[in-house]
Amino acid sequence: MFNEATFRRHQALAGVVLLLILVFIARLAWFQIGAAEQYRDEARDAIEVTHTIEAVRGDILDSEGNVLATTIFTWDVNIDPVNVGPVTLDINGKQTPFTKEEIAAYMAGILNIDTKDVLSKMTGEGRYANLKQRATATQFTRLKNLDIPWVYFDRKQTRYYPQGAVAGNLIGFVGTDGSPLAGLERTMNSCLAGTDGKETYEQGADLIKIPSSIRTITPVRDGSDVVLSINSDLQYAAQQEVAATVRRLQADWASAIVIEVKTGKILAAAEAPTVDPNKPGAVRQQNRASRIFQAAFEPGSILKPVAAATAVDTKKATPVSQVIAPDKLRMPWGQYINDSEVHAPEKLTLTGVLTQSSNTGIVQLGGKVDSATRYDYMKKFGMGHKTGVNFEGESSGVLANYTSWDKFTDKAVMFGQGVSLTPIQTAAIFQTFANKGVRLSPILVSGCRDKDGNMTPTKVEPEVRVLSESSAAQTVDMLEKVVEKGPIGRTARIFGYRVAGKTGTAQIAEGKGYGRLHAVSFVGLAPAEDPQYVVAVTAYKSRTVSNSLGATPGFVAVMKQVLKTYGIPPSTTKSKNIPTEWK
Amino acid sequence: MSAIRAIQPVRSIAPRRHLRPVPATRTQRSVVPARTASREQARAVLKAVSAKVIAGGIAIVVLNMILSSLANASIYEISQLKKETATLGTQAQIINQQVASLRSPQNLANSAKDLGMVVNSNPVFLSVKQSKVFGAATPASASNSGVSSNLIANAAMYTTSNPANFKASEAAVIDVPTLASVKAEKNVQVQVVLPSEGIPASPTH
Lengths: 583, 205
Prior knowledge:
The structure holds 2 protein chains of 2 kinds. Chain A is an alpha+beta fold. In chain A, helix 11 packs across helix 17. Chain B is 54% helix and 3% strand. The chains are: A alpha+beta, B mainly alpha.
């Protein structure tokens, strides 16, 4: 009996123990299997760090690979005020104590800020005070080497433009936070910006990254480079010229464009005043953009070759078609069209009309073509449409439909009034004459090149045949006479080269009429026997010279620079003998 | 009977051969010693295996310790090398910016002007084919030159070829009065020196 009772007690005890063991096993299984994921995650979270890898923004390069915009690093210098105190630094192997005032003075000297500011930021119970934003690499290195425990740094990407204002009008700029604000920085952002990456890793107590724990969640992809058609040396030379032009003429602004005739590539698009993207705030807002693409104005006589070429192409006139050009021409409805100067009636050919820049002459010869046809040609020359560059805020200019032209406008469009163009549209018209009558879409951005060197070329609008090859050649021949014989055109000559071009002195619309100041320009091409380059120079609101004499020196200087840069040999042929007058 | 017996051919009667079972004992004899041997062998094998397992285990543990200490050392080495890379990257950036400043068109234009050079606005072209000179070669002078002074802004031109053109703000960084000794010791020594016959250059930033 006793044995049996003991046995039963033992049995019960064993049962309880077994039950407890089972409970423990179950619980253990729960930790190990059921809730394992959760606990593993919790453990990992305690030591795991998620880190964003910032993609580096791409560069903007010129056609020769010169860097116009790139990304560098700068550092925000911060302090931890609550921990500020005296420090001991290693000077020549000797431990040397410094007071916080001494350190403040030294830091202020390096960061080029006021010592009092540094000291005031050092005091307080806060954990963060910013001493300086975007300190340079040199400043950072000097401070970092001191190894002061209560100074810490935040590295930031910063845009850096090593050539300053060279092509600043095109490149644009970014904000202090790095966001693209203007120009190609903004419009080409999808090419320039990369994709930030993300990785996680486990970190030891001493903040050391444990290599085997690194997991890439999103791979980082750095931005691609934007390659321009611009030649930065030429751009600089052209900018120097337009800056000098603005000074000489006391003009509001001036621009110079260089286009490669056979490709439509814009080799230089210079403006003054312009922006240094390193410091956009240094110039007024209206000078931070590109007037070459954005400012449309009535171009004046520079458009006469369009009317002449249209007449030639439609067989209504030839370069030697004759006309009597008075200084005032009475229109059938009573209004007068005037030349810029008082003169006796001149017996001019169409070529002579361009050489003398006669309004009355071009109205008579160009007017042989009906309005609808002239309008069609103007459209084909690209007027009233943005160029293929599609620059940010680009203007399409104004070309009203011929059906809405009044009687005066119908005539005035032939000498460049009643229609407005941007400087790039005007340059594209002369590219058409030079390129055997085919207008090419101007190219500013050659393409987007990724870090592996794969280039995605910019989409180019299809070319437009505007004039027959023969009409284009005849137009260039006529324009060559402008430089040979024109009273102002002559100042655009370049010794050794055959140059063709046209002057323009345009009145500037003000209120309902025209103001006192002019937009003076000269657009030319060289060498005339096989045109390679078009150079278009404009000065807006010239105050010292009121005709295109203000623009020809700039044209000559830029064209000479182009011919030197690209090694164009001097001309070996002579211009055609085309009469400008008749008897 | 005996005669009969006598004439009976004498032949040797060979004992009849019978198939007989292999004595069980033989089998037992051969099996029993084998069993004994295999047990001994098994024990030996077991000993050897366990010795190897133990040795292997110890080796693994030791190797693991070695590897992990090596790996740990590498982690710190990697971390150290990364820091060095960052420092060198920063130095490279400083030098690159100095080079970019020195080669910027603004600095070149200013340097050329300081050396007394002017832009030749009257280039003369030579045609080797025709043995001809195009244009009249006249010496360039300040009066007939093109734009010689730099007119284009560049706020990023930290370093110039002419020490006289150092920016005041950058120059201030060089001369820090209170802790000159700290500066001298701790500054990164970056010198940009052009060949002696070239344009004099000096580090700044």
